[in-house]
Design brief:
Layout (H helix, E strand, L loop, with lengths): L2 H26 L6 H29 L6 H14 L3 H33 L6 E5 L2 E5 L9 E4 L9 E5 L2 E4 L1 H4 L5 E3 L4 E2 L4 E2 L4 E5 L7 H11 L6 H32 L3 H15 L2 H20 L2 E3 L2 H8 L1 E6 L11 E7 L4 H12 L5 H16 L9 E7 L3 E6 L2 E6 L1 H6 L15 E7 L2 E9 L6 H10 L4 E5 L4 H11 L3 E3 L4 H14 L5 E6 L5 H6 L2 E5 L5 H6 L2 E3 L6 H36 L4 H19 L5
Parallel strand pairs: 11-18, 11-20, 18-19, 20-21, 21-22
Antiparallel strand pairs: 1-2, 1-3, 3-9, 4-7, 4-9, 5-6, 5-8, 10-22, 12-17, 13-14, 14-15, 15-16, 16-17
Helix pairs in contact: 1-2, 1-4, 2-3, 2-4, 3-4, 3-8, 4-9, 4-20, 7-8, 7-9, 8-19, 8-20, 9-19, 9-20, 10-19, 11-12, 14-19, 19-20
């Protein structure tokens, strides 16, 4: 329990004790001296103890021009109860209101803990390793390329690559994955993870401001700023609703007795009930709490949502569009076939690998690795050959000069665009991803590389269908045979192949134009070239563990584990949260409208009013907390 909560509890217990003494004297001790005055003083003392800060906030609101809030309603209603001689009810309303406030702070605190736990991943320091000397420094001062030492039990402060050591990493705070991840030399290390055993030497690949932990913290801190349409509606509703009910209460207190020539006290009591019932705190508190609980529950599973508006939109999504490489597949390509034309296999692989050596694309990396493996097998100790004039051609391939020869490596469109002679059109019908190679304008053969599906891709697609996703589309730069084979294997409705990055945006826009009102499209990707599509879709979902900075920045939701299997979980969380929010709205408004009518007709007492306000609020808060699970 926080210091603030302890203070509130102490105030409530003190007020309750005084209230109990007042009730004892007032109702059970008829011969007590000066009974009426003593009990009145005790009721007033209990009232001020319980509601002094509420009255103060109401006065400050009036002074600042923000008159119609829950503090104003509570103050007017309870002061009015004292005016008509209903002292116990006046105290009890304020006392129960404060119990509701305490319960609210506890519920909000519990919701915040699920997200606040992420904030604990922020590293306090980094062990900079320089010239064999370890110095403890701030992570912000460590530069890319520097080496840091991470000891057992310490958090990894910056993203990097392990250059020495083996260990297990606790990634639960980032991904929700309970099992430790085994790492060794050459593996990537993500900031925010905890090193469980073994000392690791890590070469930093990203500055602190661009690291995974910084991106996560930034997303968490700004998540509450982007509100859902339902939240904004409730805020606007409360702003207009409160003045209206105050006006109706005033009319109820004075108009009927003037017209019917009846006593004012009975109608004023009805109006006070009306005010207590009308307080909109059940909606104003429980709706944001429900969304916050949903975002926190998702964060526990490694699904980061940048705002409740995206959670609400995800609950309505019925179309999913996927990138292929790194999203549905591992992105770990392997060379499976080398088909030279007028050149040896070794030379074809060598020239292609050298041309691709400066590219970070997964296909390029796989070709370079295949060349290095081939050199080791043949004990080739030749030095690095000269590579110059390297030019990456987005969506086509690469052009470079190796040993004075112009090497083109890419797709068939690149061959046609550069008018390469000797190409064979039948190559487009082979499976896998085929890299066409030309040397000095003459076709030199192909290298086929294949990617494998992520283990949870097929189950994820099946579960998405069970979640009500009607349309599943894949957009890929791969050729038709490869794209269609993968789409059929995993059960997609539609696939578009041979696409450049700009083509993906065009296809997403076409899909958006085909949608009718109330339908939502989500795009899932991980690469730099996916950033424009992620920004264009209704909902952009990035694979964040290994995804590019641009993709994560452009996305609305980030899957920290890179697992497609998290997508159905995200939808279930979004739909469950929206269901809870709707339940609270219907329940709170239904009970309030019913009791408001009874109050106006004189059929309900202050006890019913208390239930319609504090009771409904507490039930709605309890219901909202279910979103955390």
């Amino acid at each position: 329990m926080t210091k603030k909560q302890k203070k509130m509890l102490k105030k409530i217990l003190t007020a309750a004790a005084i209230f109990a003494a007042a009730c004892l004297i007032s109702f059970l001790l008829p011969d007590f001296p000066f009974k009426r005055w003593v009990s009145l003083v005790l009721f007033l003392a209990a009232y001020v103890t319980a509601g002094g800060d509420v009255i103060r906030k109401a006065m400050l609101g009036i002074r600042n021009g923000q008159v119609f809030d829950e503090n104003f309603l509570m103050s007017i209603a309870t002061i009015g109860a004292f005016y008509v001689g209903e002292y116990p009810e006046g105290v009890l309303v304020m006392l129960l209101y404060q119990i509701g406030e305490l319960f609210q702070t506890y519920a909000v605190g519990k919701s915040r803990k699920s997200i606040a736990s992420l904030m604990q991943i922020r590293p306090d320091s980094a062990n900079l390793l320089k010239d064999g000397i370890v110095t403890e420094v701030s992570p912000e001062t460590v530069a890319v390329g520097d080496f840091i030492l991470v000891k057992p039990g310490e958090k990894i402060p910056l993203d990097g690559r392990i250059t020495e050591g083996t260990s297990s990493l606790d990634t639960a705070a980032l991904t929700g994955e309970a099992l430790p991840q085994e790492v060794s030399t050459g593996d990537s290390a993500i900031s925010g993870c905890i090193n469980l055993r073994g000392t690791l030497t890590i070469q930093v690949t990203r500055a602190f401001g661009e690291s995974t932990v910084s991106r996560i913290l930034d997303m968490v801190e700004h998540a509450s700023a982007k509100k859902a349409k339902t939240e904004n509606f409730i805020s606007r509703f409360a702003r207009f609703y409160t003045p209206v009910v105050v006006l109706l209460a005033v009319l109820l207190a004075f108009l009927p007795p003037l017209l019917l020539k009846e006593s004012f006290s009975g109608w004023i009591y009805r109006a006070l009930n009306f005010l207590v019932v009308s307080c909109p705190c059940a909606l104003v508190i429980s709706i944001p709490l429900g969304f916050f609980g949903g975002i926190g529950g998702a964060a526990k599973q490694g699904i980061l949502m940048k705002g409740s508006n995206y959670l609400e939109a995800l609950s309505k999504t019925d179309t999913f569009v996927f990138d292929k490489t790194g999203t549905l597949t591992r992105g770990n390509f392997k060379v499976t076939k080398i088909s030279p034309v007028g050149i040896s296999k070794d030379d074809l692989l060598k020239f292609t690998a050298l041309a691709e050596s400066q590219s970070s694309h997964p296909i390029a990396v796989s070709i370079v690795e295949a060349y290095q493996t081939s050199r080791q097998k043949h004990s080739d100790a030749a030095g690095i050959l000269p590579v110059s004039d390297v030019e990456e051609l987005a969506g086509f391939g690469v052009c470079a000069v190796v040993e004075g020869k112009e090497i083109l490596a890419g797709n068939m469109r690149l061959m046609r665009d550069r008018q390469v002679t000797g190409t064979n059109s039948s190559l487009e019908e082979t499976s896998g991803t085929t890299i066409c190679v030309a040397i000095d304008g003459t076709f030199a053969g192909t290298i086929c590389v294949e990617d494998e599906l992520k283990p949870d891709t097929i189950p994820a697609i099946q579960k998405l269908k069970q979640c009500g996703i009607k349309k599943l589309v894949m957009l890929t730069g791969d050729k038709k045979a490869t794209g269609e084979a993968i789409a059929e294997a995993i059960g997609l409705n539609e696939v578009h192949t041979d696409l450049l990055p700009a083509d993906k945006v065009t296809h997403v826009e076409e899909l958006l134009n085909q949608q009718s009102a109330g339908h939502t499209l989500a795009y899932v990707g991980d690469g730099i070239n996916d950033a424009p599509v992620l920004a264009r879709a209704d909902i952009g979902i990035a694979m964040g563990g290994l995804g590019s900075d641009a993709a994560i920045e452009a996305a609305d939701i980030v899957i920290m584990t890179d697992e497609p299997g998290k997508l159905p979980a995200a939808i279930r969380i979004a739909k469950r949260t929206m269901s809870i929010v709707r339940q609270n709205i219907v329940f709170a408004l239904g009970v309030k409208v019913l009791v408001l009518i009874f109050s106006a007709l004189g059929y309900s007492s202050m006890w019913w009013a208390i239930f319609a306000d504090v009771g409904v609020c507490m039930i709605a808060i309890l219901n909202s907390m279910r979103a955390l699970r």
